[in-house]
Design a protein that fits this description.
Elements: H1 2-35, H2 39-78
Length: 88
Amino acid sequence: MRRTLRTLAACAVAGLLAAPAAWAQGCPMCREAAGALPAEGQQALNLGILMLLLPPLAVMLTFTYGVYRYIKADRLAAGTPDVNPEIV
C-alpha cells in the first residue's frame, strides 16, 4: 500500500514539474496565431472556446446536482435535518 502511494505521489510531482514546460510551448504560438486573425476570426475563436467549455461544465454541474440530491435524500431517509444546529 505504501509503495503504491509513493508511486502515485512521485507521478503527481513529476506531472506538476513537467506541466509548466508544456504550457510554455503552446501559449505564445496560439497567441500569435490568434493575433494574426481578422476581427471576425477572433470572434469565431472566442465562440469556439466557449462552445468547448459547455460540455464539461454541463457534465460537472449535472454530477454536482446528482450528489446534492443523493445526500439530501439520504438525510431525509435517516431523519436528520438539512441544517446543522451547531452552525445556526
